[in-house]
Amino acid sequence: MNYQEIKPSFARHETFGLRFSWLPKGFHAFTSGGGAKAFTDEYATVKLGVGKNMVSSIYYWLQASDIIGKFGNSLVVTDFGRAILGEFDPYLEDDGSLQLIHWRLCSNPELALAFYWFFGRFHALAFSYDEVVTAFKDFCRGRIGVKVGDSSLEKDIGIVLRMYAPQRKKKDSIEDSFDNPMAELGLAYFNSTDHKYFKPVVEQPEINTHIFGFIVADFAARKGSNVSVSLVDLMKGQECLPGPSACFCLSQSAAITVLERMQHAYPDLLELKEQAGEWILYFRDGEASLNSLRDLTLKNYYQV
Length: 304
Hints:
Layout: H1 22-34, H2 44-48, H3 52-64, E1 68-71, E2 74-77, H4 79-88, H5 95-106, H6 113-120, E3 126-127, H7 129-144, H8 150-164, H9 174-178, E4 189-191, E5 196-198, H10 209-223, E6 228-230, H11 231-236, H12 244-247, H13 252-265, E7 270-275, E8 278-283, H14 287-302
């Protein structure tokens, strides 16, 4: 898929960032016989216990994070959604689950273009609000070629900043200040002294080996690379698919460290080689190893 093929949507979050309870609550409503109607019928606000706009926002976040997705003309629970919320972590209590949700948001440019761009294509480490908004508008109109109003683009990049680098303001409610799961990942922050945002360069990776292993396998499968992936692939990604290393702000040396840990954890499936100055991760038995990695990493992480 390339930029000309995607059909991004904008501002569907109703200006509400993803909250801790929303995905489990929405998943339960969707899978308890309601399906998509759980978010559109007249009793949706009562059943979900939130206002009308929040109902729409929950419905959006379920799709943007790939918990539910299209199958033909219908929306169904995805394999990813079933694994995470239906089996391994039904209340979304684990940091690894949040990292997986973060990856799926970043790798969904049609429903979460601002996330894809901010972590996968925007490489500034220090920037003002105006600078990041201008850069996002330039990308959307120049590279994607979309015709959408400034307000929608500002809302989308604004929600990314609020979710990952929230500012504490007097008018914020206690709920708004603390119910913000993505801020816990430490992938961006706001400095109130100089009124700038920052993205870190992670040199000492803390991301779990199994979680990153699943993400690398997911990246390779979606890229169509069932033999190997290079470090360059993982850092830069490709059009419409961000590099996992970039999404977690890993430096090159940090990415190599995590790949070495993966090889140590899965020696029968993976082999990491440096060839002519380029690091390449091989799947020993091609697609079979890739599929095994996707399956085993989650089971090992959640100790199933």
